[in-house]
Write a structure and sequence with these properties.
By secondary structure, the protein is of the alpha+beta class. The protein is built from 4 helices and 5 strands, in the order H-E-E-E-H-E-H-E-H. It has a 3-stranded antiparallel beta sheet. A two-stranded parallel ribbon has the order 4-5. Helix 3 links the parallel strand 4 and strand 5. The chain starts with a helix and ends in a 9-residue tail after the last helix. The mean pLDDT is 85.
């Protein structure tokens, strides 16, 4: 009986801790979510050439895209558009959590699903992103795809290619 009592007490303490953590998480998300959704939408709009202007990140970091007032999940889009959405999310989260302390953004073969139009948009966005304060916005892109390296060179990016 003593062992059962100890286990029940331990379970109750775990349930209390979980409840407090969930409440804290919900409170933090009230402040973080609006900023995240606004910035993700802004970046996603740039990456899609204005085709999509509203993106919503849910509690589990799933993405919903608003298209003509209809919210659709990423399953309804091409792999290139999905990659653009998640790149937007990565950039927005890195900005919000780093705050004033800027850290480099390291991208490893994230453009594989991009067609030429998407590649053009993302490289223009990244060039504009780094031009504001180059010392604060270092972006390192790794790729083993020659066409991506060639495209980046045409956009005046510094490229180190080891194919």
């Amino acid at each position: 009986k003593s062992k059962l009592y100890d286990m029940e007490t331990y379970l109750e303490s775990l349930q209390t801790a979980l409840s407090v953590i969930e409440e804290s998480s919900d409170e933090m998300r009230k402040n973080f979510d609006p900023k995240l959704n606004a910035r993700v939408s802004e970046i996603f709009s740039c990456l899609t050439g204005g085709k999509y202007s509203q993106l919503h990140v849910d509690k589990n970091y799933g993405i919903l895209v608003s298209d003509d007032m209809i919210e659709r999940t990423c399953d309804d889009f091409s792999s290139g558009t999905i990659d653009q959405a998640y790149l937007s999310l990565r950039i927005a989260i890195s900005e919000l959590i780093s705050g004033e302390t800027k850290m480099p953004l390291i991208l490893d073969d994230v453009f594989m699903q991009y067609d030429n139009a998407r590649l053009h948009n993302v490289l223009d966005f990244l060039k504009n992103y780094t031009s504001k304060k180059p010392e604060d916005n270092q972006i390192i892109i790794f790729t083993c795809h020659k066409h991506i390296a060639d495209f980046a060179l045409k956009k005046d990016s510094i490229v180190i290619y080891a194919g």
